[in-house]
Every structure is written in C-alpha cells, then in structure tokens.
Input
Amino acid sequence: MTPLTTSLTVFAILVAGVLLGALLRRTLPDHHLDTNAKDAVRLGCALMATISGMVLGLLTNSANTNFNVQRDEIRQMTAGIIQLDTQLREFGPEALPVRRLLRDAVVAVADRIWNEGAVKSTPNAPFTATAVGNAVYQGTRSLTPTNDAQRFYQTQAIQTVNAILQMRLVLFEQSSGGIPVPFLVVLVSWLTILFVSFSLFTPLSPTAFVALVLIALSASGAIFLILEMYQPFSGLMQISSEPLRKALAPLTS
Output
C-alpha cells in the first residue's frame, strides 16, 4: 500500500478504537469500570503511551536519516558525473562520443531511480545496468591514450565510473528499505489500545470525540511522514531529480 493509504487505514483503525471504547463503556458492568480498574488501565496505558512515543521518535529519526543519506548519495553521484565529464573533456576530442553517451546515460539513470521511465523495474528484481550505462563504461575503457596526460585522465575517468556505479548499486539496495510490516502492526495495536482507553472511562461528548479524531489524525499523519521519508524518490516528499538531469550542459561540438 502507498503511505497515504496506510496512514488513512491507521486513522480509521484509531477512530474505530475510540468508538469501541465508548461501546464498551455502555455494555460493561459497573464493577468493571470502578476506580481500581480505571487506575490500572491508566497506569498501563501511560506506560504504553511512553513506549509508543519513543518508537515513533526513533522511527522518525531513522526515516529522516535514510532520506538525508539517499539525498546526499544523489548529490555525490551528480558531482561524480560532472567530474567524469571533465576528465573525458581533458582527455581530448577522442572522448567526445563517450561524453555524448554520458548525457544519455544520465537521463536513463534518473528515469530508473525516480521511476519516470517508460520501463519500470519489477519488485525484487535483480539489478541490471542500462545499455547506455554499459556503453559509457566500455567507451571509457576503450579510449586509446597517446601520452602520459591522456593515460592519467583515462585512469581517473575509469575510477570515477566505478565510483558512480557503486553509488548506483547502493541506491538500488536502499530502495527496498522501509518499516517492517510486523513492526507497524504492533505499533498500530499499541495506539489502538490507547484510543480505546481514552473513551472507556470518560463520556464521549461531541467535543471529546472531535478532539480524539484530531489526535488520531495527528498520529496517522506521523506514520504518513515516516513512510514518505522511506520513499525518497516518489510521493509528496521526493528528492528532486532536476539537479541530476541538468548536471551536464549540452555539447556544442
């Protein structure tokens, strides 16, 4: 499911928990809702609320770290592509065909990372390099240096190509990250128990119900933000692809 669908589902579950608590308040015998039971439930829910808050904080920090790491890797890849183009330019006019291929490869890589291309990779499929990416690699290795300067720039260019490929592989491996489903189920279960307790011992007036709905919306909104940050190349909070796409100026010759 998408982050929006998941968060809306969580919101509906939490609101249902509020209604369930109100129903239990009407149906349970009075001795199940006495002061002793109230104190025991509130103490347990206080502990559960503390644990849930800590878990949400840790998940938010983890998701934010994941988002920032992948954003930095895109920046490093962009810098590496600019560096590679500079090294090929310094090699000489013999590298001009490879530089043209590099511009095509940048577009192909951006399309695959952001899933904007016509062909999208299937889930859990193994990584496969693009044809134009292989052409850049082979073209860089096939350059024939005639002096020490060209040999130096070819060596540097090959190292840069390998570094870019390594960053691309890391991004591919990170694309399968996210919150494990059992972990999310446990967290939502804790939150649902808390929302049941909110209306179990207190009459559910219209004002209280609206307040609890807003609190449920806030909790599901936090889960939405966490899930969105775990998908940095899609959704509302995605990393922009424009810097990568516009890293290289068009060749004039």
